[in-house]
Design a protein that fits this description.
F-box-like_dom_sf; alpha+beta; F-box domain-containing protein; 5 strands; single chain
Length: about 180
Amino acid sequence: MGTGSSILGADADWGETSLGDMPESCVAAVLLNLDPPEICQVACLNRAFRGAASADCVWAGKLPANYRYLAALAAAADDEGDGDGDGNVKPCSPISTKKGIYARLCRPTPFDGGTKEFWIEKNKGGLCMSISSKAMAITGIDDRRYWSHLVTEESRFIQPVFPSSPGSSAQTHGSSGLWN
């Protein structure tokens, strides 16, 4: 039962195996359990991991259920913003992989006349939304005793609204349609 008891004998050479010898499908099965930033880090290891990290089956589970609708909104926003200054719109190439769709949806996308933005949170894939005060129906929004519209460069939107007094309360109404 010592060193020479294997079937191949003591002098057999197995060769060296590495992570690159793993089938891409096995690597993809492991990547399904990782968060998107971890998947991108693992893709740097070798070709098998890079290929598995680009597989649609890995990224499909990271996208929200309504990703097709969100991707269409993002494509429309890209088409509106891709002009060359002379009114000519550059054609937008469709994103063909789920990894590409995920990457695009991680960038903020304005919609509804630029009064709202949505994006996917990079680490966990949660849907985030930012709504300007102009897009909300806030009770008493035009009453300067309760609300102040300030122009600032620090906000995503040009004119955010702030309560004028600490005791102010707001009621909002409406739906964005993104979570439907």
